[in-house]
C-alpha cells in the first residue's frame, strides 16, 4: 500500500488528486474526503481556526493508523494532507484520499480513519479566531 | 530528558519544552510527580493527558530516561 502523509501550513485548496500514485487507474474507486473549517465553533461565529501539531508523531500516527485500517479495508493507496497554522473558514483543513478496488473499502476506510484521527493523532485546534 | 508541551499546556507551563534529568529510568507516575513539583498547575490535567515517548504513546509499563523525548499529549482535536 502506497501511503503519503504531509502536514504543513500550505493551502490544500488547489489539491485535485493524489499526486503520481501508481495506484490511480488500478483501483475501481478513488474517494476524496475534505474536512473544511465551519463558520461556527461551539455556537460562535469564527473567521479561522489555528491548528498545531506534534509533527513527527502526528505523521507516524497517521501512517500507523493507515496501515492498521488498511488491513480491515484494503487500499492500494492512501494520501493524507493536514493543514496547520491559521486555516480560514471555508478552507480545507484535511484531505484523505484513498484508492481501493471497490467503493465499500474506500468508504469504510475514510470513515474509520477520521474517527481514529480525531481521537489519536496529536493535532489540536488551539484557537478559534472570532468573526469580526 | 526533553519534555514537550502542546496546546493549552503551553500556556500553563509558559514554555514549549523543558529539560529535566532523572537518576534512573522512571515510570509515568513518577514522572508526573516530578512534573507536579515543578509545575503544580499541571496536576489537574494528569487524568486527561497521555504521555508519549519518542513519538509513541506510552503504556503503564513504559519507563522514561534521560535520552528520551517525552511529550504531554492533551486530548487531540485534529481534522
Give an overview of the whole structure.
Chain A is α+β, with helices and mostly antiparallel strands and 132 residues long. The relative contact order of chain A is 0.31. The mean pLDDT of chain A is 93. In chain A, the strands form 2 sheets. Chain A has a 4-stranded mixed beta sheet, with helices on one face. In chain A, strands 3, 4, 6 and 8 form a 4-stranded antiparallel beta sheet that branches. In chain A, helix 1 packs antiparallel against helix 2 (103-120). Chain A has helices at 55-72, 103-120; strands at residues 2-8, 29-36, 40-41, 44-53, 77-83, 85-88, 92-100, 123-130. Chain A has one domain: Molybdopterin biosynthesis MoaE subunit (Aldehyde Oxidoreductase, domain 3, Alpha-Beta Complex), CATH 3.90.1170.40. In chain A, strand 3 (40-41) and strand 4 (44-53) form a beta hairpin. Helix content of chain B is 22%, strand content 28%. Chain B contains 2 helices and 7 strands, in the order βαββαββββ. Chain B has helices spanning 8-13, 28-38, and strands spanning 2-5, 17-19, 26-27, 50-53, 56-57, 63-64, 69-73. Chain B has a 5-stranded mixed beta sheet. In chain B, strands 3-6 form a two-stranded antiparallel ribbon. The longest helix of chain B is centred in the middle third of the chain and has 11 residues, at 28-38. The mean pLDDT of chain B is 97. The interface between A and B is medium-sized, with 23 and 15 residues.
Gist of the model:
Chain A has 132 residues and is an alpha+beta fold. In chain A, 27% of the residues lie in helices and 42% in strands.
CATH architecture of chain A: Alpha-Beta Complex
- Shape, per Cα inertia axes of chain A: elongated
Number of helices of chain B: 2
Q: Whole-number average pLDDT of chain B?
A: 97
Going by CATH, the homologous superfamily of chain A would be Molybdopterin biosynthesis MoaE subunit
Mean of all residue-level pLDDT scores of chain A: 93
Amino acid at each position: 500500500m502506497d501511503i503519503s502523509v504531509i502536514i504543513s501550513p500550505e493551502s490544500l485548496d488547489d489539491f485535485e488528486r493524489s499526486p503520481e500514485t501508481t495506484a490511480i487507474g488500478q483501483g475501481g474507486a478513488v474517494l476524496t474526503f475534505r474536512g473544511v473549517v465551519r463558520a461556527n465553533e461551539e455556537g460562535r461565529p469564527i473567521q479561522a481556526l489555528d491548528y498545531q501539531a506534534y509533527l513527527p508523531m502526528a505523521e507516524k500516527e497517521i501512517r500507523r493508523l493507515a496501515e492498521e485500517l488498511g488491513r480491515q479495508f484494503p487500499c492500494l493507496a492512501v494520501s493524507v494532507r493536514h493543514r496547520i497554522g491559521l486555516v480560514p473558514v471555508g478552507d480545507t483543513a484535511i484531505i484523505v484520499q484513498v484508492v481501493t478496488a471497490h467503493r465499500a473499502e474506500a468508504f469504510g476506510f475514510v470513515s474509520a480513519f477520521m474517527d481514529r484521527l480525531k481521537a489519536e493523532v496529536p493535532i489540536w485546534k488551539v484557537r478559534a479566531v472570532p468573526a469580526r | 530528558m526533553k519534555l514537550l508541551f502542546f496546546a493549552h499546556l503551553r500556556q500553563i507551563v509558559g514554555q514549549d519544552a523543558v529539560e529535566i534529568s532523572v537518576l534512573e529510568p522512571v515510570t509515568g507516575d513518577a514522572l508526573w510527580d516530578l512534573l507536579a513539583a515543578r509545575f503544580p498547575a499541571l496536576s489537574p490535567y494528569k487524568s486527561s493527558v497521555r504521555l508519549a515517548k519518542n513519538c509513541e504513546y506510552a503504556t503503564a509499563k513504559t519507563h522514561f530516561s534521560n535520552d528520551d523525548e517525552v511529550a504531554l499529549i492533551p486530548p487531540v482535536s485534529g481534522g
